[in-house]
UniProtKB/TrEMBL annotation:
Source taxon at top rank: Bacteria
Cofactor: pyridoxal 5'-phosphate
Pfam families: Aminotran_5
Keywords: Aminotransferase, Pyridoxal phosphate, Transferase
SUPFAM superfamilies assigned to the protein according to its UniProt record, in alphabetical order: PLP-dependent transferases
Similarity comment: family membership: Belongs to the class-V pyridoxal-phosphate-dependent aminotransferase family.
GO molecular function: transaminase activity
PANTHER family attached to this UniProt entry: ALANINE--GLYOXYLATE AMINOTRANSFERASE, AMINOTRANSFERASE CLASS V
Identification of the protein by name: Aminotransferase class V-fold PLP-dependent enzyme
UniProt entry tagged with the keyword Cell division: no
Aminotransferase class V domain segment(s): 6-329
Amino acid sequence: MTNKVFFTPGPSELYPTVLAHMQSAMENKIGSISHRSQQFKDIYAHAVAGLRRLLQLPDNYEVLFLSSANEIWERAIQNLVQEESFHLVNGSFSKRFYEISAELGKKTNKFEVPFGEGFRPEEVAIPDTAELVALIHNETSSGVSIPVADIAQYRQSAPKESLLFVDAVSSLPHPEFDYNQMDSVYFSVQKCFGLPAGLGVWLLNERCLAKAHALQKSGISLGSYHTIPVLVEKGRAHQTPETPNVLNLYLLGKVVDDMNKKGIATIRQETETKARLIYDFLEKSKNFEPAVQNTAFRSLTTIVANTRIPAAELNKLLAPYDMAIGSGYGSYKDTQIRIANFPAHTVSQVEALLYELESLGV
Ligand SMILES: *Cc1c(COP(=O)(O)O)cnc(C)c1O
């Protein structure tokens, strides 16, 4: 038994109700039911309905379940790009999507800014030939966000026929997106949904479905079991082509219920309150400073700071208090820390973390 609170940016702290839902899943032998049974279809439909409500998702969007955000990157390129994709790159996750497109043999273009910096829509020229435009709402490696209001400007400047993709893996459900300004949004559950990893959630509209059908018609292979047409057809029957992660789908439906009970407005408000506490602390600290200079681009959900003390040492000091923070990403491992601010983290847990970081006297 551990009481450790994980402020790591994903996997992260589990939503507080997960233990009880896990117990009920085991008691009801969710792991043994058929994925073609009515019981499974009800679990699937329940998770989708809860997500639609939580995210205030328009009806022209499908909700699909895959194994991870990495898988969604691959499927998006396979299913929606004949020749060319375009990517905004400012860190490891946005770069990875760009690389995957190249690995799948596509022509790739990017607009790249240095790690820790954000994008100014007026500086980004999107080629006329881009079929998919990849934005990253929250770059988890650097703690940089795209202001939600900027997304409409990218839609304006992107080719009309292109599909606008938004990576919200480490920010949803906080951002209040206008889904009409985009074509697809995706996330995986081990970040802000406070669940064990192993489920990617892909939201896409009818334009994506039409494009996939068009590519298929022209004889292009979309892949095999996880093509958009197959996922949508099965999804509408509350099923998946393969035997899916039934347990996590069950848990997602339950946690989303709990989030809906709490209310999205409260979740957003608490996220903003906790982010303010963390940034105020970092600004005043002598050991840390916010890594993202421009306040307009600072992430509210994955907060990155430059540190004089490596995360590994900080975590040794925090261990007696049952807390762990994230290290910097990649080459920033020792010079930055990352603090997750997800719905699973309570205001008082954040206050306790900041209190301990302050009293370490390091
Ligand atoms: C974690 C993360 C991913 C990858 O998610 P997986 O579920 O590990 O595939 C993609 N994008 C962002 C922004 C992330 O934080």
